[in-house]
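Researcher: Here's a chain I'd like modeled. Treat it as a single chain, no partners, no ligands.
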Amino acid sequence: MKTFKLIILLIPCILFINCEEKERKQTEVEKYVISLKSNQYENVTLPAFTYNDIEELLKYRDAKDIITNFPRNPISSLYQEKCELGVYILWTIESIRAVAINSEFLTGRFPSQNPILELRASKELELVSDAEAYQVISNAYYNWWKDNENKSSIEIMKTDPLENTKYKWH
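Model: Modeled as a single isolated chain. Structure tokens:
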């Protein structure tokens, strides 16, 4: 009888510990998304997320919320007033990748000048910000992650999710 009571007492503790660990893992990503959604993100740069945060960030890749208070690359002459949250999250993932491979386009933690797309093959600067392009890059990042999950983190980071699309980050 005593063993039965002990097991019943331990089950909530085990569940609490597992929930606590899961919550701790998600907390920084969730805080980031909530602060962006509420236009209350206060830092001037992107967070120092890592490879381990990508899967959680990808959950928000299709978010359509319009954000207006987000870190902007200070070297860009283009002031982007607003951005879709999902696109900004994908740019954040690109930041993780750029930092991991020490990209030549990296400025601080910014992976490019802006969280906006441009046509890869265009001789002139041609920015793209339509729903179709956003869906293409959302799918590209998701497939990049899922198709490479058996590879090492550095192999994954070296692969450009947009290389088989007509887009690149501006």
